[in-house]
Amino acid sequence: MPSEPCMKTLLPHLACPECRTTDGLSLERATTLEGRRWQSMLREAAELQSKLVCRACTRSYPVTDDGIPVLWSDALERTFRSLHKELNAAAPTEQDVKAANIQLYDTISNAYDAEGVHADSVTRSRMVSAFEEAAAGRRGPHVDVGCGAGNVLEFFTDVLDGPRIGVDVSLTGLRAVRRKGFDAVMGDAERLPFAEGSIGLITASSVLHHLFRPERLMCEAYSVLRKGGVFLTDFDPNGRAARWGWLALQLYALRRPVYSLLSRGRRRVFHSSKQVQTWNALAEFHNKPGEGFDIGELQSSLVNAGFELRRIFPHNCRDNSVHQRSLVRPSARHLLVQSLSGRNAFSRRNSDTLLTASVKPEVPARMNHQGEISPWARQVTQKLFAAGASALQESEHALMAAAVPLTTTVATVGD
User: Fold this and answer.
1) CA 73 to CA 57: how far, in whole Å?
2) Which DSSP category does 46 fall into?
3) Could you give the angle at which helices 255-262 and 274-283 cross, rounded to 10 degrees?
4) Considering the domain boundaries, does residue 73 fall inside one?
5) Is 98 helix (H, G, I), strand (E, B) or coil?
6) 393 and 317: one domain?
7) Bigger pLDDT: 71 or 337?
8) Contact residues for 56 (Cβ-Cβ < 8 A; gap 6+)
9) What region does 129 belong to: left with phi over 0, alpha with psi -120 to 50, or beta?
10) Least confident of 41-45, 213-217, 292-296, 392-396
11) Tens digits of residue pLDDT in 313-343
C-alpha cells in the first residue's frame, strides 16, 4: 500500500477517536467503493486506497495516498458529508462551525503559511518559556492541535524529546506540516485520536475560540496527556478587552470593506474575498466583540477538566515571555480599539489575548476549586459503586444458592 511506509512510526501513537482502544488500529486496503466515497468527501484528486480499521469497534478510517490518516470523529465525518450545504451564519450549529473551519483553512492555508502568521520569534519565546515554567521534563510526544502549517511544532523542535504530530481539519495545512518533516493526522480537536495517558505536551495556539464548545478540548487534552504532561494554549481573545465601546463597534461594522481595500500581509489572508470573510467570521466563533474568554471562567474550565493551572497570562503580540509586568506595549489596532472603548490599552489586564499553561497532576484532584467533585473523582466513585453493586449482587446469588440445599434438608427432615 502506498501509505504504509509513512504509517510505521505514526501508528503506535494513534487510537480510534471514538472507542480509544489501545493498539487497536490496523492498516488495510480500502475497497473500491470506500476509496471513491472517501475521495468525494475529502475532495481528493485520486481514489483512496488505504484505511485504518479499529479492531474493537470495527470503524474504518481513510488514509490519503501520501500517508495522512483521517481519524475523524463521527461528528467531523458528518460535517465532511455535508460540506456542500449552505452554512447558517445567523444561528450556527456545531456542524456549521466545523465546516467553516474546514472550508476556510483548506482555502487559505498556503497563504497563511507564507505570511508566517503566529510564526515569529516573539511568539516562540513566549510559548517555550511558559512550557519550561510548567514542565518537569522533556518527555514527548508533542501534539499540536489546530496545527495549521506546523509553526508551533517548529517552536518545540529543540525543546522536547519524542515525536511531533500535527492535528488539524485541513488537509492542505497538514500537507505543509508533512513537508516540514512532522507527522500529520486529520482529527477533531473535540475528540482526539490518541490513547489515554500517551502524550507529553499538547499545544493549541489560536484554537479555543474556533471551537463550538472549547471545554471539550480541555477534557480531551486531560484524557490523552500522561501524568505531568502540559496543556498549553495561546492567542485566544481576552473577554475583558472584547467588551468594545460604541465607537469601536462602529469601526468594526466597517471592517470588511476596509480590510479588503487596505489590508496588507497577514490580515489580507482572511479578507481576500467575501466568501473567505464569511467563513472566517463563522470560524472565529468566540472571537468577536462581546465574546472572548473571561479569565475566571477559563480558569474554572481548566480546573474542572482536572488540570492544575500554572499560568493565565494576558498579553499582546510583543510579549516575548510570561514575565508579569503591569504595563504592555499595544499594537496600533489594539490601542485604537481600546481607546475608543474608553479603556487603558497599556494595562496588562486589557491585553487582547490570553495564554494558559496547565499540568495534568500526578495525583488527580478530588474536588475542584468550587468544592464540587472533580471529573476524575466522579469516574472513580462510579467505578467503586459499580464494583460494589456487582459484589453485592454476587453475594446475594451466593446466599440464595446456599439457601437452596438448606431448604431441601429441612424439608427432608420434616418428612
Assistant:
1) 13
2) S
3) 120
4) no
5) helix
6) no
7) 71
8) 16, 19, 21, 24
9) alpha
10) 392-396
11) 999 888 888 887 778 888 888 888 888 889 9
Are 383 and 345 found together in one domain?
no
Alpha-carbon span 282 to 259, nearest angstrom = 17
C-alpha pair distances (Å), 88 with each of 93, 100, 103, 272: 8, 10, 14, 21
List the grid coordinates of 348.
496588562
In a domain, 282, yes or no: yes
pLDDT of residue 279: 93
Same structural domain, 141 and 11: no
Task: Tell me the C-alpha distance between 232 and 215, whole Å.
Answer: 14
Burial annotation 149-163 (CB, 10 A radius, 16+ → b, else e): bbbbbbbbeebbeeb
Closest CA to 6 of 214, 238, 185, 223: 185
Q: Residue 258's domain spans which residues?
A: 103-359
Return the exposure string of 197-217: e unless at least 16 CB atoms fall within 10 Å of the residue's CB, then b.
ebbbbbbbbbbbbbbbebbbb
Number of helices and strands (H, E) in the chain? 15, 11
Same domain? 59 vs 202: no
How many domains does the chain contain in total?
3
How many angstroms separate the CA atoms of 339 and 333, rounded? Answer: 10
Q: Are residues 166 and 309 in the same domain?
A: yes
φ and ψ of 378, to 5 deg: -65, -40
Give the list of residues 6+ apart from residue 105 with CB closer than 8 angstroms, or none. 112, 148, 168, 169, 170, 172, 173, 283
Q: Is 70 helix (H, G, I), strand (E, B) or coil?
A: strand
